[in-house]
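Here is one chain, start to finish.
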Amino acid sequence: MVRRTIKRLLTATGAVAVAAALAVGVMPSAAQAEGAPKAAKPTAVEVAGKGISSPIVIRQENEPKLFQMVLNEVSWLAAESPQTSAPKADKLGPKYTVRLLVKDAPHQIYDLYPQAAGGPRAYRPSKQPTGKKAAGWFYGRLSMSESLRLSGAPLKAKPDVVNGGIGGGVGEDLSAGEVNAMESMTEAFTEMRRLFLLNGAVLLIILVGLAGMAFLIRRRV
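Its structure:
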């Protein structure tokens, strides 16, 4: 009887140890996200393309609102997986290339197509200034056309797609509060992702523990 009890305790301890090991395997992704070195923050954006005689450089220190507006169009592309297949070339419309600059040195490059059929599209070239990445196509933000227009691209005004309202030149002066709201949403999604990872680890421990208990009960019966 004593031997059986000891054996069951050892089995239960082993189940808990396995659960802990699995949890440790799941949680590093969140821990690494916390401890990983932060990417260099762009200090300027450069816009070039059809109808722009020479590249336009928008510096954060000189035009913070416009800089943030253009940055929001592409800042999320670096870490995302491609969302769509390559559209037909004759359906893309004019191309505008946006470069993110860190101390005037190119850091990231993206091609934007604000007038693509079916909605704006963005393309991430595989060849990047900081190294190669997987090339891919993405659905662009509805505000892409207005962001590029305010930067200097010869595009039709669409102020209704900018956060804050419709018409009346809303797109001409994006308030700092609206820009901060966009940043807050991005941070909220990042926190939610971390929370899901942690919850997943806890759920895994519970499931493994229940499985171990069910095994012991079955053995006993």
